[in-house]
Protein 1
Amino acid sequence: MLGETYVLWYREMKKWLGRKPVLFISLFSPIFWILLFGKSFNPINLLPQDADEIVALLRAKIVELFGTQDYFTYVAAGMTVAFALFQASFAGASALFDRRLGYMDRLLVTPINRESIFAAKVLASVTRVVVLTAFLMAVSYIAGLQLKADITPPDLLLALLTVAFISLILSSIFMLAGFVMDNPEGLFAIGNLVNTPLLFASSVLFPTAQMPTWLRLIAEVNPLSHGADLVRYFLVGKPMEDPYLVLALFGIISVIVFLTSAKVAVKLMEK
Amino acid sequence: MDPVRAERLSKKYGNFEAVKGVSFRVGKGELYALLGPNGAGKTTTIKMLSTLLKPTSGDGYVMGYSVVREPKEVRKVIGVVPQDLTADDELTGLYNVYLQARLYGYSSSEAMERAKRALEIVGLTESAERRVSTYSGGMRRRLEIAMSLVHDPPVLFLDEPTLGLDVQTRRTIWDLIREFQKEGRSLILTTHYMEEAETLASRVGIIDLGVLKAEGTPEELKSKLRGDRLYVELYSDEDANALVREMTIAGLEVKGDSSQIVVSMQSEEVLRKVIGLLNGKRVRSINIVKPNLEEVFIEITGRRLREESFDAFRQRVFMRKVR
């Protein structure tokens, strides 16, 4: 079972690395997001530069509101999670095309466990997200992300683990969509439908504290918010309550979602 | 014991019954051809026997394993060449076959060895390291065969293996199929090309609208038709209909199909009668043919095997390119 999953996962990796232009583009779109959004939305720039007192006041307010030294640090750390969502929301395409092009039938007549077909695709998606996120973090650091002063390698790994858990949840769900749906347009429509609201109704771009009550209530149950807070806690030291408990919950939920989706996907393969 | 047995296989999609209780057996080293038009239920039958579809009722046995109860055992002993081009065209031919071997549980080095051997059998050694997207239609078909053969299965299913291929490539594939048969494999092939069934098959099952209508060696089936067929084509359907009526009155065995009519030439008397009846009529063409499976098919179903699948194949190639 593990061997089969590895063989199929390796195929996905080979395909991924073989598509150089796609790889290039998928690296750049999140960079545009954090650079353009993170750098242009800087409230300090709104003020006259000689108004030292007001600038100092605003800086203090930013730290109070965002919990980070500047807005860029806030949004760049949060975007890692949104990026996991963007990547995962189209993960199902590979399943859908394998089904449409007959490759899936080719796999289904071999004596492998059908769970491994699903698992390989989801794990490949998680791998892609984690690798790209690590790259994104490096770029953010170069662009001015202020890491916490006492950061250690385990902190970096825990931040990546957070992203891995989130992408495991999202990739499982969207991969399942790739096993249910028959047309790519529908799949992409679902991805787009989910992406934007999930992003804006979260603490990725803005803190939930300043949202209207109804939006805050949504944002506070949105897993992206907790994921973004966790990444900020590990990377930039923004305080949060019980980070390890939240991380453990993410771990448990992601495994449950993954196993459940795998079960459903296998049912769908039996026609 | 026969390697493949279909026992009253049925498949329903909602209210539509695609396959209605099909039963047949295929012996060792035998090539069984399911012949029928598109939509007859050939592919559905093959998909049930190769565990891709669950029968609504009935069962199939491959090397003694039930496709319903022991699908995993069945999968170990079958190779399937599907109608679609299933190889991953972003990867090389060799990698596609190698990956297939890995999925049958072979170690990395053994899988590589088997993949190379399979590619050699189908004559793709020189293109092994090329991406599949650069392959021609015939090469892709051969790659599909290599992928299905890498674990050396005793039973091989081929779903329209020469669909849309040119004559020369078709011959190459036929030679391969004959070779597999000589090796003692049992083969089940679907086709709507009657000459394919005629040249390759040890036995033919004629299937139409989900029902196995007739079964036998090509010779047995053809011997059911008495005498040659005489085709007469007129300039209009009305003329043809009128002629059919006249001929029926004259005691001839005749069938009309739009502007064309077919007469069975059971005796020499028939030809004289036909010529007499045609006297003074505007005739577009006259043809006398030795009975072939196409004739048998028309006789049994009252319809012609339609030639409309070339576009289906082109569409598939196109789909591959879209990705």
Protein 2
Amino acid sequence: MSKTKELIDYLRRQGLSKEQMKLINEELAHNGSHEAPDEFSQGIYLENRTFYDFLDSRDFLRMNMNAGQQARLHALDKLLERDKQRDKDGFPRKVKLGKLVKPIKGGNDKTIIIPTITEEKLYHWKGENSQGQGQGTGGSGDGEEGEVIGEEPLRPDDGAGQGAGQGKGGQHGMGADAYDIGRILTEQFELPNIKEKGKKTSLTRFTYDMTDKNRGQGQILDKKATLKRVIKTNLALGTISGDKPVDSSKILITPGDRIYRTLSREKDYESQALVFFVRDYSGSMTGKPTEVVATQHIYINSWLVYQYQRQVKTRFILHDTDAEEVPDFYTYFNKQVAGGTDVASAFALVNKIVEEENLAKDYNIYVFHGTDGDDWDARGNKALSELEKMISYSSRIGITIAAGISDYSNTFVEQYLRKSKLLESYPDKLRLDSMKAADAGEERIIQGIKLLIE
Amino acid sequence: MKLIDQHTKRIMEGCKERAAAAGLKFDKETLEYTVSNTDMIELSPKNMIPTLYDYWVQDIQVLRGKGEYEYYPNNPYETVINTRPVISFYNNNNPDWLNVMIFYHVLAHIDFFQNNKFFQHTWDYDFKEKALTDKRIIARLRAQKKRQVDYVIEFARSIDNLVGFHSSYQDEEENKQFSFTEKVEFYFGRFMQEIKNAGMNEFLEEVERYNKDSELPDQEHEERFLASIRLRHPEFDNLFEKEQKKKKIRPEEQDLMQFVLQESGILNQEENKWMKSVVEIVRETSLYFAPMIRTKTMNEGWASFWHENLFLNDDRIKGHEVAFAKINAGVTALSKVGLNPYAIGWRLFMYVEEMANKGRLSYDFRRINALNERKAFDSKQMKGRDFIFHVRENYCDFTFFNTFVDQDFVDKHKLMVVGQRINRQRNTREYYVKSRKARDYKEMLFDNLYHPPYITFQRKYENSLYLNHHFEGQELYREYIPNTLMGLEYLWGGTVFLETTELDQEAMRKAAGRDENNVQPIFHRVLYTMKNRKITKENF
């Protein structure tokens, strides 16, 4: 907390408007902590199922209803192709990537996404009203009328739509690794492919090696392969047979049996991408902004993994007034919001990591930052200077503002970015995408990615 | 998918003997298969019917996360399918005693399928065979019409919850009760009572005349009777014909699919006749599953009632009571929050049996108010067993709850309505006891039952189709409206309107003013128009 205090003192000295002070106080009053929920405890605390959720096969016979769903993924391409065809036929697309479920702890190449289809019909809406009062359900046990019999922590998706860390959906999920999702995103949603820009950023280079095999002639005889070939030929001729000892004098060797290695061109991956995902987890990010940012970052990660043929390293940074690096996507994705906001702290940490580990030399560096656009330092002096430093070595910096307010293009972060003219000076390096978090659906989020990376 | 081994089959046959002796009625022939997880993945999107038609959406995971399911309850599939012979599916390697328990559960399901009247229309044919024929028809069409077939399936499925399950059933019942020919029925019914507005006397005279005439009930007498009517009312035949034409549509008032099949301009064009067979297949499949979802709780309750009853009396597996109890409790325990069909159905059957045994399902019992007298009431009739068989035959979930859930039942099992609300201070979702009154509990049960929206419809000017949603307290799920109507426009071949009721957020905000906690729902009627695949909405 002392660091927060320091920051406030510093900002006070610089001069704070009433409005800023109000925002700061609101965030300070936010009662929460940065805990990542335990992977297993994240589901439904109270088993609230209704009649049609029970099935003999699952509840009575205890059959595993979810095994082997990976097996179905192979059909995905076909399905997506069909979906594209729908577009041509003048019908809306049906396959959605929308529902993404918590990433798995410890593995940062694994994201779970469920391609989903809804069979739309005219149904009664049984959702909740704004106070979270849904339709009543049944129960049994003791307790007077009005008595609270149980509670569960609010999930980020409570109240609306797709969610970061949507708990129970996990068991319905289909595991798809980031590479596949990236491919789908690229093809299905027509995200751009990375353009080759001169030699430095090209993805591949070629080396020459004795790898190709050639029958009849070549540079070096491949003895093992040749021997195999000779045996095959002689089996066919009948000079060798399984049950008799081999008489080497009868063995015939034809010129075609000789197998040589020849010099050939090989693809080699030259450049690798290093991606920093930076997310604001301050108090004001509660709910939809967090969800939008986390979702977009999952998609971006997948896209890069595909573009760089898995040659992608990722680093995850969270910040409130203080920045912290976290080990995996799970933690990054799930840590809850709390605390105040200082964007500069995160940018400074990225710069520090890049400098200390001398990363700029070996990698194409990407930085994606997601925020709701609040910054206690409304002028952003520090943040801007760190940003400029960052621009000097990055291939691309994408800043997403998922604003909680409806006037989404008027956030502090956007204001100081526009003022600084950095966006105009480095159109190839720095991109900004602002949206109103509450209205941002899957389409909008993917649209945003295009803007950030094109 | 493999048939169970001979040893296990013998166990099943033993179960059948004991179940039949206890009064359950089912066909002798059954087929049991063991299935692997992979089989289950293939089978579950097809509602366990291996021969169901192929449809690409089945290949992808249809998301059914928590909460989501409530918005669009699908057909609950069982591990027992209602075919001839009945087929049931099991996992491998169950110990014998567990198989005994499961077999009894399955046999009770079979008994329910084959005796509950809501399944009547599935009794005369083998759905699995019909499905296979349908599957072949669709496969053949797909070879000719390519992906068009899938569009038709998709759009047909998008209205397959709007089939007249109850109205078709009602017609069958009516026809059975009166063995009049349609003309005579029309004469005594609509013609005399509505068109001619005949007085009671005249009506009774005519009834008498008919009865006298039909003492020798053969066709000639009826003809003679009708001839006499024609003499007096020369317009009779004409009116009858007209009525017949109207009647064709009448029973389908709630069967949107049937209406589309009969009246759609597109489907009835010569080159599109094939679409009709596809829509027909989807409709019949939906009707086949309709009773299942409407008897879910009864069916599971009935099966749980019998698997417990028969297992504990089975001499073959003595010594496994503890293991049985553990599994049984896992399935049939009442949940603290949530509605478990095994638990509630089973308890309600037991309760009904007890009530009937003590003669409490009677007027005599109902007029007693004093608690101690009610508790002591016992006529020792012991008719309970017969009575629950009667219930199994004639009730569905709605009537089951509506008739038998009362305050005694709710008190006995400490049942309650659980409400939920968000506690912003604690950042939690709270579950609280909302009510322990039987009336509220019943209402809550009804709210949780499968209930497709009540929509009537008619053809309007310029070949448009006008749907009228009768509001029952819940608005339609708005996100799904555009695509559903688009599909309907495709099948209908003209503009589609939907009149429905929605929350008027604007008016609510205005009315509530600053008091955010006092938002009262305000509804208004709106009209959706789907024209050329574009949707528009306007207020009335």
Protein 3
Amino acid sequence: MASKLYHWLNERLGFDDLYKGLLDRPEPRGTWWNTLGSATLFLFTMQVMTGIFLLMYYTPSPDHAYDSIQYIMNEVAFGWLIRGIHHWSATLMVLLVFLHMLRVFATASYKYPRELTWVIGVFLLLTTLGMGLTGYLLPWNQRSYFATTVATEIAGLVPGIGAFITRTLRGGTDLSALTLSRFFAAHVWMLPALLTVLIGIHLYLIIRHGESEYPTEED
Amino acid sequence: MGKKHNVTRRDFVKVMTGVTGVIIGGGIALPAIGYAVDPAIKSGGSGKDAWISLGPVENYPIGEPTPFNFTRTKVNGWEKTASTHGLFVLRKSDTEIKVFSNVCTHLACRVAWHKDKGEYVCPCHDGVFDKDGNVVSGPPPRPLDQYEYKIEDGNLFVRFAGG
């Protein structure tokens, strides 16, 4: 019965082919360093899941942001765990993205025909840092408030349009409720949507080209 | 394929990957479920059923309705709502006590005790109640609500039903 159902579904959905194409593809011999990209993808998945759960209690308003996080940490069952995972895998994700980039650089995996994968990867790095920047403000405590003050001021150092960039990031001249809600919007929708699209292309390119062979002495 | 009890390396890795996945998935999913249903299983604050202490019974003179106010706080998540409730303690004798809510039964304004007239008067629509809480005149549909009370070691308590 189960195998009949399996065949019926497989005939229509074709997950045997999918499995072969995605997971059973031939790869050159690699090392543990080759797993950093997958590890980052795993952390991204964790971030999406824990992030969605944090949204159940978090409130992006200056009046409630801090209190709602205190509530998550001290009152809600496993709130400390969900937020802890979100906090620490955010930190770890930035670290892993950098290590992944260093590995790709060291093994020259960015060369033809994988230049686009590298370029997308650079955007992924920047978007990940953007997630870090916007997420940092959301607890709305002293540290996040002044970290964002400094960060948006640094953005203002761009010649000519600097002041405009700062105002755009802050939603006005001051760090305010508008800053919090636009950083929130960026953190939970704009950047994640962008990240998802970029990850999709990145993965497609990896499956299309396969993993690169490590360079040999002749190279 | 080997003998019956032999497991190929490939199958072993597949099974172990699955097992690890289930452990990690369960390790996240179970706390996440607890996290999601948490507010449904606990209620916070003092805004629930409780006995409110009104102090020694002797503080309330016999024959004269005496007002008493108390505040209850309801906690929903990080949001606190304080509400003030008022009542009148009427000691008719050493043993007989009535505790009236000061909420008018018409549209929930607060009634006041008018000593000169010996009546409770509601300022909103001229509802008038006598000393025992019965409607004298005006729109109120029923007598003033009464609190359930008890006396323990000479102290008076009323039962706050929540809300």
Protein 4
Amino acid sequence: MEFIIAKYNYWIYIILMMIGLYAMIAKNNLAKKVVGMTIFQTAVILFFISTAAKKGATIPIVMGDPHLHGHAIPGTVHAIQYVNPLPHVLMLTAIVVMVATFGVALALVIMIFRRYGTLEEDEIIEIRKKAVV
Amino acid sequence: MIWQLDLVLLSLVVICAIASITVKDLLSSAIILGAYSFLMCLIWAEMGAVDVAFTEATVGAGVSTIFFVAAIYHTTRRTKD
């Protein structure tokens, strides 16, 4: 029971990911699908940042000794006191990729609207069926 | 990590995610998605990932919201679901 409650970040990450997946599959509006994709990507980033967090740790900046004019003493850095910075750096790239995919998806949505005059998926399918027949 | 603040922020994030995909107006959806991104930024600052937090605040919340509002301005606010 304690194991389940202590990892609450991971449960929220699963819930957010399923909300995003549901929006991508089941929503009828194309802009809502794009919103679902953004929520999905944010959930993945939440998972990676949660793996980096430690209890009682501080941000990954090495504290200097004030008597040494701000220079850290070599060999005295304890990694257990700092949050793991490697997933943070990976997720910086993921955020930029997320915004890039969001912009491309919105550009496609605008082009679809210019051609069909609607954003609803079923109306677009109807227009395409009439155009074929 | 302060678990009380963490739980409040995480539940607000889930509420914002559900609201942004169920609301019947795309402009409201865009603004709620911006609020969602800012809450995510607060969570990451609180978990010690400050670099990720300010990248999310500028790029994720700011630029994404502006893109979305511009796209709605070029298309339509109407949505059926």
